[in-house]
Design a protein that fits this description.
The protein has helices at 2-26, 31-43, 49-56, 59-89, 94-116, 118-133, 170-176, 213-220, and strands at 142-147, 152-158, 181-187, 190-193, 206-212. With 236 residues, it is an alpha+beta fold. The chain has a five-stranded antiparallel sheet with strand order 1-2-5-3-4. A hairpin with a 4-residue loop joins strand 1 and strand 2 (152-158). It is elongated and about 80 Å long.
Length: 236
Amino acid sequence: MNLVFFIVLIMISFIVVRIGGVAFELTGLEWSVSKFQALSCFTATGFTTREAELITKNPQRRRVASYLMILGHAGLVTLIATFANSLHQAKHWHIPLFNLAIMGVSIFIFNLILSHSKLGQKITTGIKKFLLKKEMVKPIYFQELMTTPDGSGIACLEINKKSAIYQKTIAQLKETIPDLNILTIIREGKWYNNPPEDTQILLTDSVILFGKINSIKNKIFKHKPKKTKKLNSVCP
């Protein structure tokens, strides 16, 4: 019974870490960073200084990290107690070793399912839809990364079908917004710095641009958003 309970706890732990990873991604972290940071928070290990700053500087990420830490500590204590209880109740010396082997195999299988299978992808997609539906995390598609006193700044825009610059070239954008400079296009995880003017903006691209922030909002969004929306992918 202890073994079954332990395996269930391991499964729940993997799901919690995946929920945390998806939540971090929705707040703008890149997926590989999101997964690692969620695991770091849950286990309280491997929390690197630079990436820790990405978490601590953002209120939503701090809240997610806090939940992961609390659940991680509670889960660890429960797992240790369950394993210790199984050792105490064992009548033969080989039973704890057998249980330990089963636990290790279970961890490997759960990790394999979530990381490399279609079922894992469906679980991740389902988690993302649930978090968005319940508004537990509020993703957005435009993020101001830096602003100056004169109103200029660097921003990141995620492209979807409703984006005013979708399928336009950089040259066409400069005709509409003369003071706009496209610094980088992030496409399928690759960063293209200083892209040529004939580059077309494609669906799911993330564009890092420089210019007058209000001008960008007024001409790209047609109006200034009431509140800044949060990027859904790569810009912290």
